[in-house]
């Protein structure tokens, strides 16, 4: 029997990408593709999927609600989180809710279908940066060591005195946080992908980061998102 998969994602480009990845694989069956928490919960009740692939930032709530609902309805359901949110609060909330895997959208594996099958086969695909921090937390808990400069618990964010980003850079960062590619951002803002890349490089420099995930995390931490 094929593995029955529900995709929960509010960004149309990613919803299509993940749905097509499921539909193209002979061992998987797409039983739903929805964009909200309410639709996800209703679909889970109706079809009881084997695997739920969900984003966290949904229009009507958090993906952690989807995780808890899926496990409440079917204890052997596996939930794979695929998101742009790599901050400690989202990671720990997802794991506590029962997520089986956690992937960052800016570092997706070549085959999403393989990740879904890995989850169903008992694996836990986790983006390397997330895995390192999770392991670090357990190591600290087990040894009583003092936490490193990158603790898993986030300190309360302090609103910035001044926004270092221009209005255009802020617009681009918001679209980056939604998971859009540079080409898609260019289409939305009617500028070339090369111009988007140039803006993104300036954003990285101003925020002292080196990746999309780090930029989103830092922007959230200082109150820009």
From TrEMBL:
The protein's UniProt keywords, in alphabetical order, are: DNA-binding, Phosphoprotein, Transcription, Transcription regulation
Superkingdom of origin organism: Bacteria
Alphabetical list of Gene3D superfamilies matching this protein? 3.40.50.2300
**Could you read off the lineage of the organism from its UniProt record?**
Bacteria, Pseudomonadati, Pseudomonadota, Betaproteobacteria, Burkholderiales
A Pfam entry, by short name: GerE
Which species is this UniProt entry from?
Acidovorax lacteus
Instruction: Indicate the segments forming the Response regulatory domain, all copies.
Output: 4-120
SUPFAM superfamilies to which the protein is assigned, alphabetical: C-terminal effector domain of the bipartite response regulators (SSF46894), CheY-like (SSF52172)
Q: PANTHER family recorded for this chain?
A: NITRATE_NITRITE RESPONSE REGULATOR PROTEIN NARP, TWO-COMPONENT RESPONSE REGULATOR
State if DNA-binding is listed as a keyword. yes
Report the residues modified as 4-aspartylphosphate.
55
Name it: Response regulator transcription factor
Checking InterPro entries in the record gives: CheY-like_superfamily, NreC/VraR/RcsB-like_REC, Sig_transdc_resp-reg_C-effctor, Sig_transdc_resp-reg_receiver, Tscrpt_reg_LuxR_C, WalR-like
Residue stretches making up the HTH luxR-type domain: 158-223
């Amino acid at each position: 029997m094929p593995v029955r998969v529900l995709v929960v994602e509010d960004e149309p480009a990613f919803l299509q990408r993940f749905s097509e990845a499921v539909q193209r694989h002979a061992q998987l069956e797409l039983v739903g593709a929805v964009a909200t928490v309410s639709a996800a919960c209703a679909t889970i009740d109706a079809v009881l999927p084997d695997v739920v692939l969900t984003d966290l930032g949904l229009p009507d709530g958090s993906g952690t609600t989807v995780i808890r609902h899926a496990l409440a309805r079917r204890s052997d359901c596996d939930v794979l989180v695929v998101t742009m949110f790599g901050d400690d609060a989202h990671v720990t909330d997802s794991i506590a809710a029962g997520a089986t895997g956690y992937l960052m959208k800016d570092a997706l594996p070549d085959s999403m279908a393989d990740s879904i099958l890995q989850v169903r086969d008992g694996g836990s695909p986790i983006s390397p940066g997330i895995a390192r921090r999770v392991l670090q937390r357990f190591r600290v808990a087990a040894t009583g060591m003092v936490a490193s400069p990158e603790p898993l618990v986030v300190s309360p964010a302090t609103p910035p005195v001044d926004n270092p980003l221009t209005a255009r850079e802020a617009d681009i960062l918001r679209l980056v946080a939604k998971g859009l590619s540079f080409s898609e951002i260019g289409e939305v803002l009617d500028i070339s992908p090369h111009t988007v890349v140039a803006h993104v490089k300036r954003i990285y420099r101003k925020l002292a980061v080196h990746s999309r995930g780090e930029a989103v995390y830092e922007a959230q931490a200082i109150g820009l998102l």
